[in-house]
Amino acid sequence: MLLTIKVKLYPNEQQEKALLETIERFNEACDYISKIAWSTRTFGKVGIQKIVYYDVREKYNLSAQMVVRAIGKVAESYRVDKTCQHEFNKHGAIVYDQRILTFKASDEVSILTLEGRERITIKYGEYCPLDMERVKGQADLIYHNNTFYLMVVVDVPDADPIDPDGVMGVDMGIVNIATTSDGEVFSGKKCTEVRQRYSALKARLQSVGTYSAKKHLKKISGKERRFKKDTNHCIAKAIVQTAKDTNRAIAIENLKGIRTNSTVNKAVRTAIGKWAFDELGNFLKYKATLAGIPVFEIDPKNTSRECSVCGHIDKKNRKTQAEFCCVKCGHQENADINASKNISLRGICQLSHRPLAY
Ligand SMILES: [Zn+2]
């Protein structure tokens, strides 16, 4: 499975200066190349290279590979849109390939700068030890909030699939982001608070409408998105860990079928907004694959209306958003937990129908 991993660089003072100069010079060169590409209407990589290669090497004192990379970045950008001259962010990304970037050890990278090659300390998140043999092709050097990162694509081997003893059902919803058939609830409360805080702030900024308000707006949107992403990561991690510890597969509702629950009124739904369920589902799937845990996507029809004890399906079973009470057998339970048990049961059907060769 291919994963993009964010690696943080820890340059010393002199290295930081060299990296910053490199990234700025590189993007200046991109602007220059872009100007010529635009004025001569030459947008293909090969065409641009013929016109500007030696010129750019001399003018910006960049290495051969860096010039090729800059030309590539400009050509790529015009490939998407040829309607205007493109300008590049002063601190836009540099794409490095293996000729100008090599991982020396799990904690060090050798990277080409204007000052020559520098060996810089690196650290990365949860996928350690990172097998550098598995790094595929390119890495983007990015500069964000005064910090350098490499975005590295890695081919991580899938674990041997487990032979599951059961299926853990996971219900995703608006009020509770995720609920498992074990009764574990990942509440949306904290997320709701954050979202409400941001939406009040966003409304104020939108009504102001000045340039700096818009800039601020963009910044908090980014923060909110990152918060959601982190939350989804944590939930997915916890669920996959439980499945692994108990040797069970995971069942979720088919991602296209995530219901917007009719028992939650529209105002609440708008206030809380649409959680990124597809993101949570994708995180669950890839973390599970890495751990060798099968994930079944089940038909979401009536999972919230069906009684997990007697199977009776009735709209009246679901009294409120939180309450489930079967009109036939009287079974009472938290509605999300009841739904996740139904998801688990449907997952078990899929498990027993799997071909034996799996
Ligand atoms: Zn029942």
What does this structure look like?
With 358 residues, the protein is an alpha+beta fold. It folds into 2 domains: 154 residues, no CATH class; 188 residues, Nucleotidyltransferase, domain 5. 44% of the residues lie in helices and 22% in strands. The chain contains 8 helices and 14 strands. The strands form 3 sheets. A 7-stranded antiparallel beta sheet has the order 2-6-7-1-5-4-3. Strands 10-9-8-11-12 form a 5-stranded mixed beta sheet. Strands 13-14 form a two-stranded antiparallel sheet. A hairpin with a 3-residue loop joins strand 8 and strand 9. The radius of gyration is 26 Å and the shape is elongated. It starts with a strand and ends in a 6-residue tail after the last helix. Zinc ion binds next to loops.
Index terms:
seven-stranded antiparallel beta sheet; alpha+beta; five-stranded mixed beta sheet; 358 residues; binds zinc ion; 44% helix; Nucleotidyltransferase, domain 5; 8 helices; 2 domains; 22% strand
Summarize the structure.
The chain is α+β, with helices and mostly antiparallel strands and 358 residues long.
Structural class: alpha+beta
The gross shape turns out to be elongated
**Can you tell me the residue ranges where pLDDT is under 50 for at least 5 consecutive residues?**
257-265, 267-273
Q: How many β-strand runs?
A: 14
The fraction of residues assigned to DSSP E strands is 15-25%
Treating each run of at least 4 consecutive H or I residues as one helix, how many helices? 8
What is the CATH domain class of the largest domain? Alpha Beta
Secondary-structure arrangement, i.e. CATH architecture of the largest domain = 2-Layer Sandwich
Largest sheet: 7 strands, antiparallel
N-to-C order of helices and strands: EHHHEEEEEEEEEHHEHHEEEH
- In spatial order, strands of the major sheet run 2-6-7-1-5-4-3
